[in-house]
Design goal:
95 residues, alpha+beta, Pnp Oxidase, Chain A, 5-stranded antiparallel β-sheet, 2 helices, 5 strands, 22% helix, 42% strand, globular
């Protein structure tokens, strides 16, 4: 999970069930829980925009952020997509 300062950003491959479902119906909800405090959580509901431009570099940035390297290997023929969540409702209990 990432943010551009305005929206929540996710990254996945085109053609997966997730992207097919979002193409059909862009509504979604995301629940994020703090590993150190399971009572601290955030829920974002909104609509998804699928963005292909810059998605490969974005997944490499994710790789670096969470694992310390940029050596993300795409599967043969894989095309990445950024899922930009335009929030309509935000809730939760964040400490």
């Amino acid at each position: 999970v990432d943010t551009d300062g305005e929206s929540v950003l996710l990254n996945t491959a085109l053609g997966r069930v997730k992207t097919r479902n979002l193409e059909r119906d862009p509504r979604l909800a995301i629940s994020i829980t703090d590993f150190e405090n399971p009572y601290s959580q955030l829920t974002v509901s909104g609509r998804a925009e699928l963005i292909q431009e810059g998605a490969e570099e974005h997944i490499r940035q994710f790789q670096y952020k969470y694992q310390g390297n940029r050596d993300f290997k795409l599967a043969k023929g894989e095309r990445r997509v950024i899922i930009r969540v335009v929030a309509e409702r935000i809730g939760g209990d964040v400490e």
